[in-house]
Specification:
This is ATP-binding cassette domain-containing protein. With 260 residues, this protein is α/β, with parallel strands linked by helices. The chain is built from 10 helices and 10 strands. The protein is globular, with a radius of gyration of 19 Å. It binds adenosine-5'-triphosphate.
């Protein structure tokens, strides 16, 4: 194929974006009541990648993602998101930043008294302040189609299974078209088949929206499906990094223990 100036530029942009860091954490420390939970966290999230964070309970995985969105303040170190130091942002800037980041927390609940459609419209009208009915409808339908639940549009959350509610929760986050997704144990409490459906969906959403994601999980099947790269957290630091096969073959006993 002939190489035009235009497609050379496209290629240059594509490779720049691929290596662009959307999150960069250096020397992050965080203590609670004198107990140091994060001792020295260094972490990069590249644009478009799925990064899985493994670690035993209570290691500070959730604390790390809360520092990324400014829900918790760091003690020391640097947490940059889209190249901006989160601690330096004022309230408005922080709000603006959070519209570019989606969270799927373990217990993200839907509003029980609202239909699926109303649950999905809520962030569009309340947060993005959209008014155009046609645009709102098309975004709701597009995202529901994406998670395979267009049929459930007029149902109440109580009429849905746990796995379906999780999908709707994911749809409600994705409808904001976040550039970064933070998944805190997305498959916890689900049976293996539903867990696999959610993991497949996380992967499909990465491809569809080119989202960059941090996925905290203990579920190795989820890690295997979703991860481009994994890091293992222990005692306030990351002790290993690699793709699934590399970590599966690690000599480190702790790293190996996740794969048993
Ligand atoms: N706001 C807070 N105030 C005091 N301590 C906290 C706070 N948030 C977290 N911690 C403590 O920090 C430690 C790490 O918590 P965190 O929730 O990040 O663990 P985790 O690695 O995500 O574990 P899990 O997999 O169990 O969710 C815990 O000991 C927790 O009690």
């Amino acid at each position: 194929m002939e190489t035009t100036v235009e497609n050379q530029q496209d290629q240059a942009t594509a490779s720049f974006e691929k290596d662009e860091l959307v999150v960069q954490i250096r020397g992050l420390k965080k203590a609670f009541n004198g107990f140091e939970v994060l001792k020295n966290i260094n972490l990069d999230l590249k644009r478009g990648e799925n990064l899985v964070v493994l670690g035993k309970s209570g290691q500070g995985k959730s604390v790390t993602i809360k520092c990324i969105v400014g829900l918790l303040k760091k003690d020391e170190g640097s947490v940059k998101v889209f190249n901006e130091e989160v601690a330096d942002l004022n309230d408005d800037e922080l709000k603006q930043l959070r519209t570019r980041i989606g969270f799927l927390f373990q217990n993200s609940a839907l509003y029980d008294s609202m239909t699926v459609r109303d649950n999905l419209e809520f962030p569009l009208t309340r947060v993005l302040k959209l008014k155009d009915e046609a645009e709102i409808n098309s975004r709701v339908e597009e995202v529901l189609e994406g998670v395979g639940l267009l049929d459930a549009i007029d149902k109440m959350p109580s009429d849905l299974s746990g796995g379906m509610r999780k999908r709707i929760g994911l749809a409600r986050t994705l409808i904001m078209k976040p550039e970064i997704m933070l998944y805190d144990e997305p498959t916890t409490g689900l049976d293996p088949i539903t867990s696999k459906e959610i993991s497949d969906l996380i992967l499909a959403m990465q491809k569809k929206y080119q989202t960059s994601s941090i996925i905290i999980t203990h579920d190795m099947a989820c890690a295997k499906i979703t991860a481009d790269r994994l890091v293992v957290m222990n005692d306030g630091e990351y002790i290993a990094e690699g793709n699934y096969e590399e970590l599966e073959n690690s000599d480190n006993e702790l790293v190996k223990s996740f794969f048993k």
